[in-house]
Amino acid sequence: MKLYQLAHSPFCIPISRALEAAEIPFEAVEVPNHDRSTLLRLTSGAYYQVPVLEHEEKIIFESGTDTQDVARYVDGLCAGRLFPARLEGHQALILPYLENDVEGVTFKLCDIHYVPQIADPIERGLNIRHKERKFGRGCVDTWRREKDALWTTALEKLKPFDQILAHSPYVLGEAPVYVDFLLFGTLENLTFAGANPFPPLSHLQQWHERLRTFRF
Fold it and tell me: 44 is in which domain, residue-wise?
Protein backbone atom coordinates (compact mmCIF):
# COMPACT_ATOMS: atom_id res chain seq x y z
CA MET A 1 0.00 0.00 0.00
CA LYS A 2 1.17 3.53 -0.81
CA LEU A 3 -0.23 6.66 0.78
CA TYR A 4 0.37 9.76 -1.34
CA GLN A 5 0.39 12.63 1.10
CA LEU A 6 1.56 15.99 2.31
CA ALA A 7 3.15 15.36 5.69
CA HIS A 8 1.43 18.36 7.29
CA SER A 9 -2.01 17.79 5.77
CA PRO A 10 -4.84 17.56 8.32
CA PHE A 11 -6.57 15.10 5.97
CA CYS A 12 -3.55 12.85 5.33
CA ILE A 13 -2.47 12.53 8.96
CA PRO A 14 -5.75 10.81 10.01
CA ILE A 15 -5.22 8.16 7.33
CA SER A 16 -1.60 7.45 8.26
CA ARG A 17 -2.43 7.35 11.99
CA ALA A 18 -5.38 4.99 11.38
CA LEU A 19 -3.20 2.68 9.27
CA GLU A 20 -0.57 2.68 12.02
CA ALA A 21 -3.24 2.00 14.65
CA ALA A 22 -4.46 -0.97 12.61
CA GLU A 23 -0.85 -2.11 12.08
CA ILE A 24 -1.33 -2.10 8.31
CA PRO A 25 2.02 -1.65 6.52
CA PHE A 26 2.18 1.23 4.06
CA GLU A 27 4.67 3.45 2.30
CA ALA A 28 4.19 7.20 2.68
CA VAL A 29 4.97 9.02 -0.57
CA GLU A 30 5.41 12.76 -0.17
CA VAL A 31 3.83 14.77 -2.98
CA PRO A 32 5.39 18.16 -3.77
CA ASN A 33 2.77 20.76 -2.97
CA HIS A 34 3.61 22.64 -6.16
CA ASP A 35 3.62 19.58 -8.44
CA ARG A 36 0.57 17.28 -8.37
CA SER A 37 1.41 15.52 -11.67
CA THR A 38 1.88 12.17 -9.90
CA LEU A 39 -1.66 12.34 -8.53
CA LEU A 40 -3.08 13.31 -11.91
CA ARG A 41 -1.34 10.37 -13.56
CA LEU A 42 -2.53 7.96 -10.87
CA THR A 43 -6.14 9.10 -11.19
CA SER A 44 -6.11 9.50 -14.99
CA GLY A 45 -6.53 13.24 -14.58
CA ALA A 46 -9.52 13.00 -12.26
CA TYR A 47 -7.96 14.21 -9.00
CA TYR A 48 -4.98 16.24 -7.79
CA GLN A 49 -5.47 16.49 -4.03
CA VAL A 50 -4.28 14.33 -1.14
CA PRO A 51 -4.60 11.80 0.34
CA VAL A 52 -4.62 9.17 -2.40
CA LEU A 53 -4.20 5.47 -1.67
CA GLU A 54 -2.70 2.91 -4.03
CA HIS A 55 -3.50 -0.63 -2.93
CA GLU A 56 -3.54 -3.88 -4.89
CA GLU A 57 -3.93 -2.11 -8.24
CA LYS A 58 -6.73 0.08 -6.84
CA ILE A 59 -6.46 3.87 -6.63
CA ILE A 60 -8.67 5.39 -3.94
CA PHE A 61 -9.43 9.10 -3.78
CA GLU A 62 -12.34 11.35 -2.84
CA SER A 63 -15.35 11.32 -5.15
CA GLY A 64 -16.76 14.59 -3.78
CA THR A 65 -15.99 17.64 -1.68
CA ASP A 66 -17.44 16.23 1.53
CA THR A 67 -16.79 12.49 1.17
CA GLN A 68 -14.64 10.13 3.23
CA ASP A 69 -13.84 7.60 0.49
CA VAL A 70 -10.22 7.10 1.55
CA ALA A 71 -11.09 6.78 5.23
CA ARG A 72 -13.93 4.37 4.46
CA TYR A 73 -11.61 2.25 2.35
CA VAL A 74 -9.23 2.05 5.31
CA ASP A 75 -12.24 1.27 7.48
CA GLY A 76 -12.83 -1.80 5.34
CA LEU A 77 -9.34 -2.95 6.27
CA CYS A 78 -9.99 -2.18 9.96
CA ALA A 79 -13.09 -4.34 10.43
CA GLY A 80 -15.39 -1.32 10.52
CA ARG A 81 -13.74 0.31 13.53
CA LEU A 82 -13.56 3.81 12.02
CA PHE A 83 -17.23 3.99 11.00
CA PRO A 84 -19.25 1.68 13.26
CA ALA A 85 -22.88 1.63 12.15
CA ARG A 86 -24.23 2.68 15.55
CA LEU A 87 -22.28 5.95 15.37
CA GLU A 88 -22.93 6.92 11.74
CA GLY A 89 -25.38 9.66 12.70
CA HIS A 90 -23.08 11.09 15.35
CA GLN A 91 -20.14 11.24 12.98
CA ALA A 92 -22.27 12.76 10.22
CA LEU A 93 -22.99 15.68 12.56
CA ILE A 94 -19.44 16.14 13.86
CA LEU A 95 -17.39 15.67 10.67
CA PRO A 96 -18.62 18.85 8.90
CA TYR A 97 -17.89 20.87 12.03
CA LEU A 98 -14.34 19.53 12.13
CA GLU A 99 -13.72 19.88 8.40
CA ASN A 100 -15.17 23.38 8.08
CA ASP A 101 -15.42 25.23 11.39
CA VAL A 102 -12.31 23.89 13.11
CA GLU A 103 -9.90 23.09 10.26
CA GLY A 104 -11.02 26.24 8.44
CA VAL A 105 -9.28 28.23 11.19
CA THR A 106 -6.42 25.98 12.29
CA PHE A 107 -4.86 25.47 8.85
CA LYS A 108 -4.35 29.23 8.56
CA LEU A 109 -2.35 29.24 11.79
CA CYS A 110 -0.16 26.49 10.35
CA ASP A 111 0.27 28.17 6.97
CA ILE A 112 1.55 31.47 8.34
CA HIS A 113 4.58 29.52 9.58
CA TYR A 114 4.77 26.71 7.01
CA VAL A 115 4.60 28.78 3.82
CA PRO A 116 7.44 31.25 4.58
CA GLN A 117 9.73 28.33 5.49
CA ILE A 118 9.49 26.78 2.01
CA ALA A 119 13.04 27.33 0.78
CA ASP A 120 12.53 27.07 -2.97
CA PRO A 121 11.08 30.37 -4.26
CA ILE A 122 9.20 28.68 -7.11
CA GLU A 123 7.61 26.13 -4.79
CA ARG A 124 6.77 28.84 -2.24
CA GLY A 125 5.33 31.14 -4.89
CA LEU A 126 3.17 28.45 -6.46
CA ASN A 127 1.98 27.42 -3.01
CA ILE A 128 0.92 30.99 -2.28
CA ARG A 129 -0.77 31.37 -5.69
CA HIS A 130 -2.72 28.16 -5.04
CA LYS A 131 -4.05 29.59 -1.78
CA GLU A 132 -4.74 33.01 -3.22
CA ARG A 133 -6.96 31.55 -5.93
CA LYS A 134 -9.31 30.41 -3.17
CA PHE A 135 -8.81 32.96 -0.41
CA GLY A 136 -7.75 36.12 -2.23
CA ARG A 137 -4.52 37.97 -2.86
CA GLY A 138 -2.32 38.44 0.19
CA CYS A 139 -4.29 35.90 2.23
CA VAL A 140 -1.24 34.46 4.03
CA ASP A 141 -0.10 37.94 5.08
CA THR A 142 -3.64 38.71 6.25
CA TRP A 143 -3.73 35.54 8.36
CA ARG A 144 -0.39 36.48 9.87
CA ARG A 145 -1.72 39.88 10.93
CA GLU A 146 -4.84 38.24 12.36
CA LYS A 147 -3.06 35.38 14.13
CA ASP A 148 -4.14 36.38 17.66
CA ALA A 149 -7.80 36.51 16.66
CA LEU A 150 -7.44 33.23 14.75
CA TRP A 151 -5.90 31.56 17.80
CA THR A 152 -8.76 32.76 20.00
CA THR A 153 -11.28 31.43 17.50
CA ALA A 154 -9.44 28.11 17.24
CA LEU A 155 -9.60 27.65 21.01
CA GLU A 156 -13.32 28.42 20.99
CA LYS A 157 -13.89 25.84 18.26
CA LEU A 158 -11.83 23.19 20.07
CA LYS A 159 -13.29 23.77 23.54
CA PRO A 160 -16.38 21.55 22.97
CA PHE A 161 -14.10 18.59 22.31
CA ASP A 162 -12.23 19.28 25.54
CA GLN A 163 -15.56 19.32 27.38
CA ILE A 164 -16.57 15.98 25.80
CA LEU A 165 -13.22 14.42 26.61
CA ALA A 166 -13.54 15.39 30.25
CA HIS A 167 -16.08 12.57 30.52
CA SER A 168 -15.04 10.12 27.80
CA PRO A 169 -11.67 8.68 26.71
CA TYR A 170 -12.52 9.34 23.06
CA VAL A 171 -14.92 11.67 21.28
CA LEU A 172 -17.71 9.13 20.89
CA GLY A 173 -16.98 6.60 23.60
CA GLU A 174 -14.50 4.02 24.76
CA ALA A 175 -12.70 3.55 21.44
CA PRO A 176 -11.57 6.00 18.77
CA VAL A 177 -13.50 6.34 15.50
CA TYR A 178 -12.85 8.46 12.44
CA VAL A 179 -13.76 11.78 14.09
CA ASP A 180 -10.97 11.14 16.60
CA PHE A 181 -8.43 10.58 13.84
CA LEU A 182 -9.61 13.66 11.94
CA LEU A 183 -9.39 15.79 15.09
CA PHE A 184 -5.90 14.35 15.67
CA GLY A 185 -4.88 15.34 12.14
CA THR A 186 -6.24 18.85 12.62
CA LEU A 187 -4.18 19.31 15.78
CA GLU A 188 -1.05 17.79 14.23
CA ASN A 189 -1.41 20.26 11.37
CA LEU A 190 -1.85 23.15 13.80
CA THR A 191 1.33 22.22 15.67
CA PHE A 192 3.32 20.93 12.66
CA ALA A 193 7.08 21.41 13.08
CA GLY A 194 6.48 23.51 16.19
CA ALA A 195 4.48 26.12 14.27
CA ASN A 196 2.09 26.63 17.18
CA PRO A 197 1.87 25.35 20.75
CA PHE A 198 -0.64 22.66 21.58
CA PRO A 199 -3.90 24.28 22.72
CA PRO A 200 -4.01 24.70 26.52
CA LEU A 201 -6.94 22.31 26.95
CA SER A 202 -5.97 19.59 29.40
CA HIS A 203 -8.47 16.90 28.43
CA LEU A 204 -7.65 17.38 24.76
CA GLN A 205 -3.95 17.03 25.57
CA GLN A 206 -4.53 13.75 27.44
CA TRP A 207 -6.68 12.42 24.59
CA HIS A 208 -3.97 13.36 22.09
CA GLU A 209 -1.39 11.33 23.98
CA ARG A 210 -3.73 8.32 24.09
CA LEU A 211 -4.47 8.47 20.38
CA ARG A 212 -0.86 9.11 19.39
CA THR A 213 0.14 5.59 20.45
CA PHE A 214 -3.21 3.83 20.13
CA ARG A 215 -3.40 0.39 18.53
CA PHE A 216 -6.64 -1.41 17.72
Answer: 2-77
